[in-house]
Write a structure and sequence with these properties.
174 residues; mainly beta; six-stranded mixed β-barrel
Length: 174
C-alpha cells in the first residue's frame, strides 16, 4: 500500500511541470504608498481636487457625474458627462471614449446597474496615473469620489486608522 502511494507520488512529481514560486519583483523593492481611509485626489480633466473615500471592497473607482449620455463617434461608443468641481461648484463638461460598461452589484440583492467607465488622470500627492472610473450620480453620498481596487492594486496600501496622509493638491488656478 505504501509502495503504491510513493510510486503515485513520484509519478506526479515527474509529470508535473516545474513552477517558479519566486515573484518577478521582490515586494521589499517595490515602493508602495501608504494612504488613509480618505484622501484628496486631483482629477486633471475636472481641474479640481476631490475628497475621496478609499473602498477596498469596490472593484472600480467611481466619480460623481451628471448628464451622462452615450453617443457614437467614428464607430465607437463615447459618453458625454458633467463633473462638478467640489470647491467652486463649477460644471465641467467632458466627452470621453467608453472603456467598458461595468455591472455594479447593489446591496440587498437588488438588480445590478450598468455604468459607463472612462479613463481619467488622478493625482495623489506626487503620484499621478490614468485609471478607469465609472460615472455615477453620487449626489446623495458624502464623498464625490470613491477609490476602488483598480486604483489601489500593486501601488497603494490602505491604513484605515488614518486619513489624509498625503499632501493636499493646490487649488486649481481659475
Amino acid at each position: 500500500m505504501r509502495l503504491r502511494f510513493f510510486v503515485a507520488l513520484l509519478c506526479l512529481c515527474i509529470l508535473t511541470p516545474p513552477v517558479d514560486l519566486r515573484s518577478k519583483e521582490d515586494p521589499a523593492e517595490v515602493e508602495r504608498l501608504v494612504i488613509g481611509e480618505a484622501e484628496y485626489f486631483y482629477i486633471s480633466e475636472a481641474g479640481a481636487r476631490y475628497n475621496a473615500r478609499i473602498d477596498t471592497g469596490a472593484t472600480t473607482s467611481s466619480i460623481h457625474a451628471l448628464d451622462i449620455e452615450a453617443f457614437e463617434r467614428d464607430g465607437e461608443t463615447w459618453v458625454s458627462f458633467t463633473l462638478i468641481q467640489p470647491e467652486s461648484g463649477k460644471a465641467v463638461e467632458l466627452e470621453k471614449p467608453v472603456e467598458r460598461i461595468a455591472s455594479i452589484r447593489r446591496r440587498g440583492g437588488e438588480e445590478s446597474m450598468k455604468r459607463y467607465v472612462v479613463k481619467l488622470e488622478a493625482t495623489l500627492g506626487n503620484w499621478t496615473r490614468r485609471y478607469e472610473f465609472n460615472l455615477a450620480d453620487r449626489t446623495d453620498f458624502e464623498f464625490p469620489l470613491l477609490i476602488g481596487r483598480n486604483l489601489l492594486r500593486g501601488t497603494l496600501i490602505v491604513d484605515v486608522s488614518v486619513a489624509y496622509t498625503q499632501t493636499k493638491q493646490p487649488k486649481p488656478k481659475q
